[in-house]
Amino acid sequence: xxxxxxxxxxxxxxxxxxxxxxxxxxxxxxxxxxxxxxxxxxxxxxxxxxxxxxxxxxxxxxxxxxxxxxxxxxxxxxxxxxxxxxxxxxxxxxxxxxxxxxxxxxxxxxxxxxxxxxxxxxxxxxxxxxxx
Length: 132
Fold this sequence. Notes:
Layout: E1 5-13, E2 20-25, E3 34-35, E4 38-40, H1 47-59, E5 68-78, E6 83-92, E7 107-113, H2 124-130
Parallel strand pairs: 1-6
Antiparallel strand pairs: 1-4, 2-3, 2-7, 5-6
């Protein structure tokens, strides 16, 4: 099996109360952990375009690529699955729309969290980024 490093994006969406939007994962990769909206970078896409697209696909929220900024990068190796990602973390504080569970096969729910009360069971890239 060829070993491939993939590029992921994680989008840290904050509301007016500075709460962070996180989803509870249901997919086998990271099942039972919390993460921000995100996914894979597609060919030819900018980090900001990927952030906008993934957020819309997963949560129904609209974020303009111009309203997203890169805030960090992590190198994430998942020992249980042998997957390796370089994850680009982005921040968005401007969005529109209402949150919907658009991918119920991948997420159990979306919830806003106070920054001083984040869940302990975080998805590896988010855990590595948020402990910095």
